[in-house]
Amino acid sequence: MLTCARICLLALLLGASLRATAGQPLMFITEAYPPYNFSDDNILRGIAVDLLVIASLNTEQPVQRGQIRLMPWARAYRTVLHTPNSVLFATTRTAEREKLFKWAGPIAATRVVLLARKADQIRIQSAADLQRYRIGVIHEDIGEQSVLALGVRKEQLHVSANADALIRQLHAGRIDLWAYEENVAHWFLRNAKFNQDDFESVYQLQQGELWYAFNPKVSDEQIQQLQNAIDALRKTPGKFGKTRYEDILIDYL
């Protein structure tokens, strides 16, 4: 039979254990997804990176750029799904992903589209029209998940680990459509020195928001701290925009 002293001791030990779990350092993982997150001369930059670094200054665990790990998307996605105390960004928040992660944000609005060469004059009126096209996707990316949800067959998909390869395939006509976030796609087009006017968005797959996606075992306290700090940046007056949050957007958009 437990004495009062032992019960108090167990309660103290349990409380200490819970505090230790809540305070464990988080591993932040991202991909090359400009203008939201990308490496510039081996320094991580972008809307999502800057927002995280600045907001986290008002949490118990400030995040340094050097702590953030850069990985291909599919590997990053799998890692955070299965690794406690890990965070993935920038992640489109969808109904399918809702219960897989915990969330803080939003980071920014996002629009996922099908991009085509203008010269091909592709017109998509409904999801049924997609059945005749070869579609480039990043594995586990929201673009792949969106076209599969519309009934596109896996045999139609040309899967790659990076956007650069898909840009070149689209430019060369080896794929007909590229399923990707619109702002990011145009960033990669500019970086590859292609004329953006040669390409057009022909179908919207998703419209939503980008968020920080936490492994479900991350403590609610840690997530709420970051959420509160992000909310504060959306209210704090900025130097160039109306708020500190708008200052970050102005740097990249």
List keywords for this structure.
eight-stranded mixed sheet, alpha/beta, 8 helices, globular, 253 residues, D-Maltodextrin-Binding Protein, domain 2, two-stranded antiparallel sheet, 2 domains
Description:
It is a single chain. It contains eight helices and ten strands. It is α/β, with parallel strands linked by helices. The termini are far apart.
Give the distance, in angstroms, between the N- and C-terminal Cα atoms: 65 Å
Structural class, judged by helices and strands? alpha/beta
CATH architecture of the largest domain: 3-Layer(aba) Sandwich
Mean pLDDT: 91
Give a short synopsis of this structure.
With 253 residues, the protein is an alpha/beta fold.
SSE topology:
Elements: H1 4-22, E1 27-30, E2 38-40, E3 43-45, H2 47-56, E4 69-70, H3 73-82, E5 86-92, E6 102-117, E7 135-138, H4 142-149, E8 157-160, H5 163-172, E9 177-181, H6 182-191, E10 199-214, H7 220-233, H8 244-252
Parallel strand pairs: 1-4, 1-5, 7-8, 7-9
Antiparallel strand pairs: 2-3, 5-10, 6-9, 6-10
